[in-house]
Amino acid sequence: MKVLIVLAHPEPRSFNAHLAEQARLAYQAQGHQVKVIDLYQEGFDPREGAGNYPGRKNADKFDPMQEQRHHWNNQQLPAEVQRHIDLLREADMLILQFPFWWFGAPAIIKGWMDRVFVYGGLYDSRHRHENGVMRGKRALLAVTAGASAQACAPDGRDGDMRLMLWPIMHALHYIGFSVLESFLVYGVRGGLAGEELRAQTAALAQVAQDYRARLGSLAAWPEVPFNRNEDFTAELALKPGAPEYSPFVRHRDPV
Known about the structure:
Blueprint: E1 2-7, H1 15-29, E2 33-38, H2 39-42, H3 64-73, H4 79-90, E3 93-99, H5 107-116, E4 138-144, H6 161-164, H7 166-174, E5 178-179, E6 183-185, H8 194-215
Helix pairs in contact: 1-8
Organism: Serratia entomophila
Domain Flavodoxin-like fold: 1-203
InterPro entries: Flavodoxin_fold, Flavoprotein-like_sf, NAD(P)H_dehydrogenase_qn
Protein backbone atom coordinates (compact mmCIF):
# COMPACT_ATOMS: atom_id res chain seq x y z
CA MET A 1 0.00 0.00 0.00
CA LYS A 2 1.14 3.54 -0.75
CA VAL A 3 0.41 6.12 1.96
CA LEU A 4 0.48 9.92 1.58
CA ILE A 5 0.58 12.05 4.74
CA VAL A 6 -0.08 15.78 4.33
CA LEU A 7 1.05 17.75 7.39
CA ALA A 8 -0.12 21.31 8.02
CA HIS A 9 1.53 22.83 11.09
CA PRO A 10 4.12 25.63 11.04
CA GLU A 11 6.18 24.18 13.93
CA PRO A 12 8.34 21.15 13.00
CA ARG A 13 8.39 20.02 16.67
CA SER A 14 4.63 20.25 17.15
CA PHE A 15 2.49 17.36 18.33
CA ASN A 16 0.93 17.35 14.86
CA ALA A 17 4.36 16.75 13.36
CA HIS A 18 4.91 14.02 15.95
CA LEU A 19 1.66 12.28 14.97
CA ALA A 20 2.60 12.50 11.29
CA GLU A 21 5.93 10.86 12.13
CA GLN A 22 4.20 8.16 14.16
CA ALA A 23 1.96 7.38 11.20
CA ARG A 24 4.97 7.24 8.89
CA LEU A 25 6.80 4.85 11.21
CA ALA A 26 3.72 2.69 11.74
CA TYR A 27 3.13 2.22 8.03
CA GLN A 28 6.78 1.69 7.21
CA ALA A 29 6.94 -1.00 9.90
CA GLN A 30 4.05 -2.72 8.10
CA GLY A 31 6.03 -2.68 4.86
CA HIS A 32 4.08 0.10 3.15
CA GLN A 33 5.52 2.95 1.09
CA VAL A 34 5.05 6.30 2.81
CA LYS A 35 5.47 9.86 1.57
CA VAL A 36 5.09 12.94 3.81
CA ILE A 37 4.27 16.39 2.44
CA ASP A 38 4.94 19.13 5.00
CA LEU A 39 3.07 22.08 3.50
CA TYR A 40 4.67 24.76 5.67
CA GLN A 41 8.20 23.45 5.35
CA GLU A 42 7.78 23.18 1.58
CA GLY A 43 6.51 26.76 1.46
CA PHE A 44 3.37 25.69 -0.38
CA ASP A 45 1.46 28.72 -1.68
CA PRO A 46 -2.25 28.18 -0.87
CA ARG A 47 -3.45 31.10 -3.01
CA GLU A 48 -5.14 30.20 -6.26
CA GLY A 49 -4.85 32.98 -8.82
CA ALA A 50 -4.08 34.04 -12.34
CA GLY A 51 -0.36 34.21 -11.63
CA ASN A 52 -0.26 30.44 -11.34
CA TYR A 53 -1.11 30.09 -15.03
CA PRO A 54 1.24 31.96 -17.37
CA GLY A 55 -0.23 30.23 -20.44
CA ARG A 56 -3.79 31.41 -19.86
CA LYS A 57 -6.71 30.07 -21.87
CA ASN A 58 -8.46 33.40 -21.35
CA ALA A 59 -6.19 36.35 -20.69
CA ASP A 60 -9.09 38.78 -20.20
CA LYS A 61 -10.91 37.09 -17.32
CA PHE A 62 -9.59 34.56 -14.81
CA ASP A 63 -11.83 31.52 -14.42
CA PRO A 64 -10.08 29.14 -11.96
CA MET A 65 -11.97 26.01 -13.03
CA GLN A 66 -11.44 26.57 -16.73
CA GLU A 67 -7.76 27.42 -16.32
CA GLN A 68 -7.25 24.34 -14.16
CA ARG A 69 -8.85 22.11 -16.75
CA HIS A 70 -7.02 23.77 -19.62
CA HIS A 71 -3.64 23.42 -17.93
CA TRP A 72 -4.41 19.87 -16.80
CA ASN A 73 -5.29 18.84 -20.35
CA ASN A 74 -2.14 20.48 -21.70
CA GLN A 75 0.08 19.15 -18.89
CA GLN A 76 1.04 22.70 -17.90
CA LEU A 77 0.00 22.87 -14.24
CA PRO A 78 2.46 24.45 -11.77
CA ALA A 79 5.15 21.92 -10.89
CA GLU A 80 4.31 21.77 -7.16
CA VAL A 81 0.63 21.22 -7.90
CA GLN A 82 1.35 18.50 -10.46
CA ARG A 83 3.68 16.74 -8.01
CA HIS A 84 1.01 16.72 -5.30
CA ILE A 85 -1.60 15.46 -7.77
CA ASP A 86 0.71 12.65 -8.85
CA LEU A 87 1.27 11.65 -5.23
CA LEU A 88 -2.47 11.70 -4.56
CA ARG A 89 -3.26 9.56 -7.57
CA GLU A 90 -0.56 7.05 -6.60
CA ALA A 91 -1.64 6.81 -2.96
CA ASP A 92 -4.00 4.18 -1.60
CA MET A 93 -4.34 5.99 1.73
CA LEU A 94 -4.32 9.72 2.51
CA ILE A 95 -3.90 11.26 5.96
CA LEU A 96 -4.46 14.97 6.49
CA GLN A 97 -2.75 15.99 9.75
CA PHE A 98 -3.54 19.45 11.10
CA PRO A 99 -4.60 21.49 14.16
CA PHE A 100 -8.17 22.72 14.64
CA TRP A 101 -7.87 26.51 14.33
CA TRP A 102 -10.83 28.87 14.58
CA PHE A 103 -13.31 26.01 14.22
CA GLY A 104 -11.73 24.59 11.09
CA ALA A 105 -8.53 23.62 9.34
CA PRO A 106 -5.61 26.04 8.83
CA ALA A 107 -5.96 28.12 5.67
CA ILE A 108 -3.09 26.26 4.03
CA ILE A 109 -5.16 23.05 3.99
CA LYS A 110 -8.08 24.77 2.26
CA GLY A 111 -5.69 26.43 -0.18
CA TRP A 112 -4.02 23.09 -0.87
CA MET A 113 -7.42 21.66 -1.76
CA ASP A 114 -8.29 24.72 -3.88
CA ARG A 115 -5.14 24.31 -5.97
CA VAL A 116 -4.56 20.54 -5.99
CA PHE A 117 -8.13 19.23 -6.41
CA VAL A 118 -8.09 20.48 -10.00
CA TYR A 119 -11.13 20.51 -12.22
CA GLY A 120 -10.70 18.07 -15.08
CA GLY A 121 -8.00 16.12 -13.28
CA LEU A 122 -9.46 15.06 -9.92
CA TYR A 123 -13.13 15.65 -10.68
CA ASP A 124 -15.59 16.61 -13.40
CA SER A 125 -19.33 16.28 -13.99
CA ARG A 126 -19.05 12.51 -14.52
CA HIS A 127 -16.52 11.76 -11.80
CA ARG A 128 -17.81 12.83 -8.40
CA HIS A 129 -18.79 11.23 -5.10
CA GLU A 130 -18.92 7.41 -5.35
CA ASN A 131 -17.85 7.72 -9.02
CA GLY A 132 -14.91 9.97 -8.19
CA VAL A 133 -11.38 9.61 -9.46
CA MET A 134 -10.20 8.52 -5.99
CA ARG A 135 -12.76 5.73 -5.54
CA GLY A 136 -11.24 2.70 -3.86
CA LYS A 137 -8.85 4.88 -1.83
CA ARG A 138 -9.22 5.83 1.83
CA ALA A 139 -8.71 9.17 3.60
CA LEU A 140 -8.36 10.07 7.26
CA LEU A 141 -8.31 13.39 9.12
CA ALA A 142 -6.03 13.40 12.17
CA VAL A 143 -6.79 16.61 14.04
CA THR A 144 -5.71 18.20 17.32
CA ALA A 145 -7.63 20.75 19.40
CA GLY A 146 -6.61 22.78 22.40
CA ALA A 147 -10.06 22.52 23.97
CA SER A 148 -11.31 19.56 25.98
CA ALA A 149 -13.32 16.66 24.58
CA GLN A 150 -16.41 17.99 26.35
CA ALA A 151 -15.99 21.48 24.91
CA CYS A 152 -15.78 19.94 21.41
CA ALA A 153 -18.75 17.61 21.93
CA PRO A 154 -22.18 18.15 20.31
CA ASP A 155 -23.38 19.79 23.54
CA GLY A 156 -20.07 21.54 24.25
CA ARG A 157 -19.38 25.26 24.41
CA ASP A 158 -17.12 25.18 21.33
CA GLY A 159 -19.56 23.16 19.26
CA ASP A 160 -19.41 19.77 17.58
CA MET A 161 -15.84 19.43 16.28
CA ARG A 162 -16.64 16.38 14.18
CA LEU A 163 -19.51 18.23 12.51
CA MET A 164 -17.34 21.24 11.76
CA LEU A 165 -14.88 18.94 9.98
CA TRP A 166 -17.63 17.55 7.75
CA PRO A 167 -17.02 20.00 4.84
CA ILE A 168 -13.44 18.70 4.48
CA MET A 169 -14.60 15.10 4.71
CA HIS A 170 -17.29 15.87 2.13
CA ALA A 171 -14.70 17.39 -0.22
CA LEU A 172 -12.61 14.22 0.04
CA HIS A 173 -15.68 12.12 -0.65
CA TYR A 174 -16.56 14.43 -3.55
CA ILE A 175 -13.41 13.35 -5.41
CA GLY A 176 -14.07 9.71 -4.58
CA PHE A 177 -12.32 8.88 -1.32
CA SER A 178 -13.84 6.55 1.24
CA VAL A 179 -13.47 8.70 4.36
CA LEU A 180 -12.66 7.15 7.72
CA GLU A 181 -13.99 8.63 10.94
CA SER A 182 -11.53 11.30 12.07
CA PHE A 183 -8.88 10.72 14.72
CA LEU A 184 -9.51 13.60 17.11
CA VAL A 185 -7.12 14.64 19.87
CA TYR A 186 -8.22 17.10 22.55
CA GLY A 187 -6.43 19.22 25.15
CA VAL A 188 -3.23 19.87 23.18
CA ARG A 189 -2.33 23.13 24.90
CA GLY A 190 0.73 25.32 24.84
CA GLY A 191 2.27 27.41 27.61
CA LEU A 192 2.11 24.71 30.28
CA ALA A 193 4.75 24.14 32.95
CA GLY A 194 5.39 21.94 35.93
CA GLU A 195 2.86 19.26 36.78
CA GLU A 196 0.44 20.37 34.06
CA LEU A 197 3.13 19.94 31.42
CA ARG A 198 4.17 16.54 32.76
CA ALA A 199 0.56 15.35 32.82
CA GLN A 200 -0.06 16.51 29.25
CA THR A 201 3.19 14.95 28.02
CA ALA A 202 2.19 11.60 29.49
CA ALA A 203 -1.33 11.83 28.09
CA LEU A 204 -0.13 12.71 24.59
CA ALA A 205 2.42 9.90 24.65
CA GLN A 206 -0.46 7.51 25.23
CA VAL A 207 -2.44 9.14 22.42
CA ALA A 208 0.46 8.64 19.99
CA GLN A 209 0.79 5.02 21.05
CA ASP A 210 -2.94 4.41 20.58
CA TYR A 211 -2.81 6.10 17.18
CA ARG A 212 -0.05 3.82 15.93
CA ALA A 213 -1.95 0.78 17.18
CA ARG A 214 -5.16 1.84 15.44
CA LEU A 215 -3.35 2.43 12.15
CA GLY A 216 -2.41 -1.24 12.26
CA SER A 217 -6.06 -2.30 12.01
CA LEU A 218 -7.69 -0.02 9.42
CA ALA A 219 -10.19 -2.74 8.53
CA ALA A 220 -11.86 -2.11 11.89
CA TRP A 221 -11.85 1.69 11.48
CA PRO A 222 -15.40 2.97 10.80
CA GLU A 223 -16.17 4.91 7.64
CA VAL A 224 -18.13 8.14 7.41
CA PRO A 225 -21.44 7.45 5.63
CA PHE A 226 -22.56 9.64 2.73
CA ASN A 227 -25.64 9.65 0.56
CA ARG A 228 -25.27 8.01 -2.83
CA ASN A 229 -26.49 9.16 -6.23
CA GLU A 230 -29.66 7.07 -6.03
CA ASP A 231 -30.70 9.02 -2.90
CA PHE A 232 -31.33 12.15 -5.00
CA THR A 233 -33.81 13.26 -7.62
CA ALA A 234 -32.80 14.52 -11.06
CA GLU A 235 -32.85 18.02 -9.51
CA LEU A 236 -30.42 16.79 -6.81
CA ALA A 237 -32.95 17.00 -3.99
CA LEU A 238 -32.88 14.32 -1.32
CA LYS A 239 -35.62 11.83 -2.10
CA PRO A 240 -38.38 11.22 0.46
CA GLY A 241 -37.35 8.31 2.65
CA ALA A 242 -33.65 8.58 1.75
CA PRO A 243 -31.35 8.33 4.78
CA GLU A 244 -29.83 11.36 6.48
CA TYR A 245 -26.20 11.14 7.50
CA SER A 246 -25.43 14.77 8.30
CA PRO A 247 -27.29 17.97 9.23
CA PHE A 248 -25.70 19.42 6.09
CA VAL A 249 -27.73 17.11 3.82
CA ARG A 250 -31.15 16.54 5.35
CA HIS A 251 -34.87 16.54 4.61
CA ARG A 252 -36.58 19.89 4.83
CA ASP A 253 -38.80 20.51 7.78
CA PRO A 254 -42.52 20.30 6.95
CA VAL A 255 -44.01 23.69 6.14
